[in-house]
Design a protein that fits this description.
Shape: globular
Structural class: alpha/beta
CATH superfamily of the largest domain: Spore Coat Polysaccharide Biosynthesis Protein SpsA, Chain A
CATH topology of the largest domain: Spore Coat Polysaccharide Biosynthesis Protein SpsA, Chain A
Number of domains: 2
CATH architecture of the largest domain: Alpha-Beta Complex
Number of helices: 18
Largest sheet: 8 strands, mixed
Order of helices and strands: HEHEHEHEHEHEEHHHEHHEEHHHHHHH
Distance between the termini: 51 Å
Strand content: 5-15%
Length: 425
């Protein structure tokens, strides 16, 4: 139980439970409004799919002041017969605990990993506390590939609106797929399954006092699993419904956090990704079906204006590390009318590669560098909106696939220039 949260009542609870088969963790911060639904879904999943297994639900809370932990303790399913064909054999154990360490989702996860290690759990999952679309089936889909399929890491696979998850679609998925060679479609999805063995491996990593603990934990978990050859798969969970975000809104903080973490992981695993060529699919569990999705409104005019303002104000920063022909193209894109606004795949891939190299070579302050990416990302998203305005979901996925292949084809430039601190070749 080394490193475990030292609160006496938690140690007593662990001593009472002794060992468990399955653990589902819910990190939370002021989620009283939504977490009751998530807890009910998890309890129903335990009851319906794992009635003879010893199951633990852990709420790792970041100091909520709205009664989140009370909601977790007081939430129970009144009528198990509504979700069961037979009575549950084992009781569900609940642990609610404030986590310790620097504030952030990563610190919440560490507490969950430590409790799973102390209980010698075989299969774990973590789910977001604000999910409106979680069902009991999510528990089965995230846990069964570990318990019965030999998987160590289960990434989520959701259906999302074509303008939801644009950071994933335009940067994180294509870049991590090209780097590590596995087609994990939602590497920062927020809901994951993993083996007890992988949880223990995560605990050995010296990241818990770094930015990973504040943010970046999702991409860190995925990359760490893939880069260390843990058996990875994905599970189709249907729709992910959460509060919709306007992709044209100010996402600079999230972009900085997620892209920064992805670039940091490139440093950690450069000996791995430089030898990877192409990519391959990972096994996918679950029945895939079409679901209705909540519409997302976009303000295309505002997005293009943000891009043009960036070209006007940030060009001096970009000229430090972007080739002249690329900065000339950015000027040209800014002159395009709204209906024909376009940043081609090839140029976008080159931009991301140059940003990654500039971060690696410490050309300028990392925060300034990454925050200067925001108007370019918003411009690329505007380009995607123009290109896909009449496209259905399969057509959009084909366009994302095309972008991924471009990242893979141009990866040699990244690998070749990684050690070349004297300039690009």
């Amino acid at each position: 139980m080394a490193g475990i949260v030292v609160r006496r009542e938690i140690q007593e609870k662990i001593g009472e439970i002794k060992e468990a088969d399955i653990l589902v963790g819910i990190p939370s911060y002021n989620n009283a409004r939504t977490i009751g639904h998530v807890v009910k879904a998890v309890q129903a999943g335990f009851a319906k799919y794992f009635p003879d297994r010893k199951c633990v639900l852990v709420n790792s809370d970041g100091g909520s002041t709205d009664g989140t932990m009370d909601v977790v303790q007081n939430t129970a399913i009144d009528d198990y017969q509504a979700v069961l064909l037979h009575h549950r054999v084992e009781p569900v154990y609940k642990i609610t605990t404030p986590y310790h360490g620097i504030p952030g989702k990563g610190s919440a996860f560490k507490t969950i990993f430590e409790i799973s290690d102390a209980l010698q759990v075989k299969a774990c999952a973590v789910v977001d506390a604000d999910l409106r679309s979680i069902t009991p089936e999510w528990v089965e889909l995230l846990i069964k590939p570990v318990l019965q399929g030999g998987a160590d890491y289960v990434a989520p696979l959701y259906l999302r609106h074509k303008y939801d998850g644009t950071i994933t679609n335009s940067i994180i998925y294509p870049l991590t797929r090209a780097l590590y060679g596995k087609r994990v479609r939602q590497p920062i999805g927020g809901d994951f399954g993993f083996s007890g063995e992988l949880a223990r491996f995560y605990l050995t990593k010296e990241v818990w006092e770094t930015d990973v603990a504040r943010y970046g934990i999702d991409i860190w978990m995925t990359t760490t699993a893939v880069a260390n050859n843990f058996r990875t798969c994905q599970a189709f969970l249907g729709a992910k419904i959460h509060d919709p975000k306007d992709p044209g809104a100010d996402l600079s903080a999230m972009l900085y956090q997620v892209v920064g973490a992805t670039f940091d992981l490139m440093e950690t695993y450069d000996s791995v990704w430089k030898t990877v060529q192409g990519s391959e699919p990972v096994p996918t569990f679950g029945f895939q079906y079409v679901v209705g999705l909540e519409p997302i409104q976009v303000n295309l005019t505002r997005m293009i204006e943000r891009f043009r303002l960036g070209v006007k104000e940030l060009m001096d920063i970009w000229k430090v590390f972007l080739p002249p022909e690329t900065t000339d193209l950015l000027h040209t894109f800014g002159l395009l009318p709204k209906a024909r606004f376009n940043i081609p795949d090839e140029v976008w891939v080159e931009l991301i590669h140059h940003f990654a190299l500039a971060a690696h070579q410490k050309v300028i302050n990392k925060e300034h560098l990454l925050k200067s990416l925001t108007p370019l990302y918003i411009g690329r998203t505007a380009s995607f909106v123009v290109e896909t305005s009449e496209s259905d979901a399969p057509e959009v996925e084909k366009k994302i696939e095309r972008l991924c292949r471009m990242f893979e084809e141009k990866k040699s430039f990244l690998a070749k220039n990684w050690e070349n601190r004297g300039g690009l070749s």
